[in-house]
Amino acid sequence: MSPFWQRAIGPFAKRKYWIQWSLVTAVAASVSWLVGNQLLPNGGLVAAIAATLTVRISLHKSIREGVGQLLGTAIGAGAAMIALNFFGFGVITVFITVILSLVTSRALHLGEVASINVPITALIVIGPGLAESTAIHRTISTVVGTSIAIVFSYFAHPSSPAGRTIDRIKALANKSSDLLELMSEAVFYGYTTDIAGKMLGYARLIVEDIPTLRAQALEARSYARWFPTAREDEAEALYERGVAIEHAVVQVRTIARTLFDISLEKDLPPSIVEKISHSLASASQAIRRESTTTGKAVTEEASNSRTADLRASSKSLAEEFMERGQKIQLAQFARGISLVTNLERIADSLDLDSPAITDVQSPEEAAEMQILALSPLEQGRKIRKRIRRLIPKRFLKSR
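^ thats the sequence. predicted structure below, dont judge the formating
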């Protein structure tokens, strides 16, 4: 391909996922417009707006946020319609609508984006204009647009939740591998505290990607439980791999911090410095191999062979520290042993034979991340208990 076409097509190729999501959103809005106008007078505009606000990067997220958005809109618009009868459409009604919609969105744990969409949709439902349209018609149009958006969200991303989880694992593994390789070269050629600080800062940025990976792995696991074409065993294995990479990334950040502390006192023998560099390079290669095999069936023997060099180099590093321990400051000796421990934990994590991974049950999604953190029955019981606390005891005894 000529350089001209590379420059012309390159920006679009890098943003292909965003382009696909944009096209799907536009198609969903257009279909909602047609269906809304066919079902209700002037219902197309509201349906198109609702569809545009609801389409997400995956079917799973769209259903979660779409259902929550419908609940929040219904509650916010319902309360606003009551205020509309008393105050008319004015500043008081707008205030009540927005406050109740935001409170409802927070209670349903819809997330930052959907929480803003709820008051917008509620205001559209109760607002004036749109001749021959009523609040009930607009509510129905909102349901139409949201439903169509949920269907089209299936096509918003070319890969499945499991595929996106694999991509996240590979991206995080490659970033960690690159940083370990950089640290290995820096140690070998003699790094300064300034360089160590930059590496530590980059390690902190990598750790910030962990919540995104965890959320994607949870989505893949949840998706596999109710979608017939998804494999639940594959999703569980990917979730375990995600946890393993998470553990490894945390160890990489700890290594970066330890190297920064070591740089403050440069008194390690050249032989130890060389072995530290070699061990970091081995860890980089082990994590790199993990990124290339994620999503494939790997035997236990093949899994252990990927970390054999890492285990051997960390053992050699430990022996070197023990042999020269008398000539090294106690603080530096402790940091060196900490490096060995971090490297061994990386190997255990990649091999999936660490009790921290195999014996600790993988948690479900946190309650605050769910659409309904508590079931309606449980919420009802909590509300009744709170009401009973407000009633004087003498009234409760008299019943």
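The mean pLDDT is 77.
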